[in-house]
Design goal:
Layout (H helix, E strand, L loop, with lengths): L9 H14 L1 H14 L19 H13 L4 E4 L7 H23 L5 H12 L1 E9 L16 H17 L3 E4 L6 E2 L9 E9 H11 L5 E2 L11 E9 L2 E6 L2 E7 L7 E5 L26 H22 L3 E3 L3 H10 L11 E3 L7 H17 L16 H12 L3 H25 L3 E3 L2 E3 L1 H4 L6 E4 L4 H16 L5 H8 L5 H14 L2 H14 L3 H16 L21 H5 L28
Antiparallel strand pairs: 1-15, 2-3, 2-10, 4-5, 5-7, 6-9, 7-8, 8-9, 11-12, 13-14
């Protein structure tokens, strides 16, 4: 059997594709059935049965509420220093905001929010994949040079545009490809191979092969037909060593994978379980989503509501009975509300059957089974019956949220793998990359790709309590500021925060303040006025005690009639009202937490 390092050919790739496609076939069939529940197109009655159909939004709401309320999508990045010392800590603090910016920016570049969609697949199908990161060099701005005879103004414009595009260019892509489009070994968390089956436009295949012909490995130009936008099914193969593409069973190219990793990772929700009989193992047993075990209950629930709705329609549009001529009665009703020539008892309404109470109880039991099989309605923001206090609700919410601990950890690990590969790609590029004003270089990484990412679901009330407790602990000397920033305030750029605090302290120094004032006066054209004020201060200090210069004898009055110095100077009590109409503010005591 050839190893992963052996250069693959079309036959080898298609053989692996056929094996994985067969392995995943039952899971894909189950996902197609789950799609009908999420999209509310599932068959309600047996074939041939003609009854009204009403499909409630319960199945769709279960998935959406679980994704919106139980999974977070704002990445929190942490990087341990590669060594000891302030320099290593500064590099780690520089990498954290850069990784966060890339994860957010790549998500916004896709039609759907990448990490939210990845989490949705994980909840809905019990399985998800991360497509990326990959290098996307197509939109890299080409270097510009001054043309012969080009005037200065045009050259400066083109150069400015190039510099802006170079700073804003995003070389990475991370996509939320549907898990049925990528085939991998289900028993490997980081598989050695991946096969992606998607359709490409013919013109895109032509351009992809045109760039590779005669440059790298084996490549054949894809010939265009009359329809440039024909969708052509393709099989794309990835391993740690090779990258290949097949269209219509024709090997278009095979090239070395210089990145050194497979740009795909996958995970299961953790709600499934491998069967005891190993001969019957199939990925469908592990790929268990939130709707898997309640599909029958959802069907019964929809049938029950459809039956009740049918009874409501029959009662609302009841049928009239008559012992006479039905056609004559219909014609008279069509002419108006007064009917002629009918004796009492010759026309009557059909009796409506009274629905027994147990029918409504049956629907409630099905709804309880659906909720028990998924998650509490409290997780969707609805208060449960009998729950009257915040503490009771918090206990129920915490218990219900434990169901989503495993999917959350899987999502964290997928993002961690993607972030680690991002650092690897920067090392491969061997140049600095700037994203949202954050720049890192290969020297910052130091060939160390370790990084961790978490999507933490933050409760604003609990976060406020955590920060208040952290402030108290810092004030009592039980915790360092850096620990407070990272653990309580969840600040990623600790080095940057230190610099900003140091700058604030330097700006508060009297000598630096004097320099800043002079620079501001120069900028706003107030230099002469500032010099005059300084001369007056010098003259006042040189004058005998008790004497006031003539030009300063008459004070300048403010809008309230008082001297301006008394209104705005340091002698004014800040807790006194500015005018009689202003409410006197309450005096606030200083606390130990003010030291932070």
């Amino acid at each position: 059997m050839p190893s992963y390092e052996t250069k693959p050919d079309a036959k080898t790739i298609l053989t692996k594709h056929g094996h994985l496609k067969q392995l995943w076939s039952r899971a894909h069939s189950k996902w197609q059935d789950i799609d009908t529940y999420y999209q509310r197109t599932f068959r309600l009655w047996d074939e041939g049965v003609d009854r009204p159909s009403f499909r409630p939004a319960r199945s769709t709401a279960i998935v959406d509420h679980a994704v919106d309320n139980q999974l977070a999508f704002d990445p929190m990045v942490h990087r341990e220093p590669a060594g000891r010392g302030r320099a290593h800590e500064a590099r780690a603090d520089n990498i954290e905001p850069w990784v966060k910016a890339v994860l957010e920016e790549t998500s916004l570049l896709e039609p759907q929010l990448t990490w939210k969609q990845i989490g949705k697949y994980l909840i809905m199908y019990g399985y998800t994949i991360v497509d990326g990161p990959v290098l996307s060099m197509e939109h890299r701005p080409p270097k510009v040079s001054r043309k012969k005879g080009e005037d200065d103004e045009d050259w400066k414009k083109r150069e400015a545009l190039y510099n802006n595009e170079k700073l804003t260019w995003m070389p990475f892509r991370i996509r939320a490809t549907h898990p049925a489009r990528v085939l991998m070994n289900p028993m490997e968390k980081q598989p050695q191979e991946a096969i992606k089956t998607v359709a490409h436009y013919a013109i895109d295949l032509h351009e992809m092969t045109k760039k590779r012909v005669g440059k790298r490995g084996q490549a054949e130009l894809y010939e265009l037909g009359d329809n440039w936008y024909e969708l052509v099914p393709t099989v794309e193969y990835w391993s740690r060593f090779w990258h290949a593409l097949i269209a219509n069973e024709q090997l278009l190219f095979v090239e070395k994978n210089t990145w050194g990793f497979v740009p795909f990772s996958h995970a299961f929700s953790g709600w499934g379980s491998e069967p005891t009989d190993s001969r019957s193992f199939n990925p469908e047993h592990l790929a268990v989503g939130i709707l898997d075990h309640i599909r029958e209950s959802l069907l019964i629930h929809a049938q029950a509501l459809s039956g009740r709705h049918n009874s409501l329609m029959e009662a609302t549009f009841n049928t009239m009975m008559t012992s006479g001529d039905a056609m004559e009665l219909a014609q008279q009703k069509a002419r108006g509300n007064i009917i002629e020539g009918f004796q009492k008892g010759e026309a009557w309404w059909m009796d409506i059957p009274q629905l027994p109470q147990w029918m409504f109880q049956a629907v409630s039991e099905v709804e309880a089974d659906i909720e028990f099989g998924t998650f509490s309605a409290a997780q969707a923001g609805m208060r449960q019956q009998g729950v009257s206090t915040v503490g009771q609700q918090a206990i129920l919410s915490t218990a219900a949220a434990k169901k989503f601990v495993a999917p959350s950890q899987q999502l964290d690990h997928l993002a961690t793998v993607a972030a680690s590969n991002l650092l690897r790609l920067v090392d491969v590029l061997d140049e600095s990359v700037t994203v949202r004003g954050h720049t890192i270089t290969p020297s910052d990484i130091g060939h160390d790709y370790r990084v961790s990412v978490k999507f933490e679901l933050i409760d604003p009330v609990l976060q406020l309590q955590r920060r208040q407790l952290g402030v108290s602990e810092v004030g009592m000397g039980l915790k360092s500021k850096e620990t407070f920033w990272s653990a309580d305030a969840q600040l990623e750029d600790a080095t940057g925060e230190k610099k900003r605090m140091l700058i604030e302290k330097m700006e508060a120094h009297p000598a630096i303040q004097e320099i800043l004032i002079r620079q501001a006066a120069e900028e706003f054209g107030l230099r002469e006025m500032l010099e005059r004020i300084e001369e007056e201060q010098v003259a006042q200090q040189a004058a005998p005690k008790g004497m006031v210069p003539a030009e300063r004898a008459a004070p300048i009055l403010g809008p309230d009639g008082r001297p301006l110095g008394q209104m705005m100077g340091s002698q004014t009590d800040v807790n006194k009202p500015l005018t009689p109409e202003v409410v006197n503010p309450m005096r606030l005591p200083l606390t130990a937490t003010g030291a932070l």
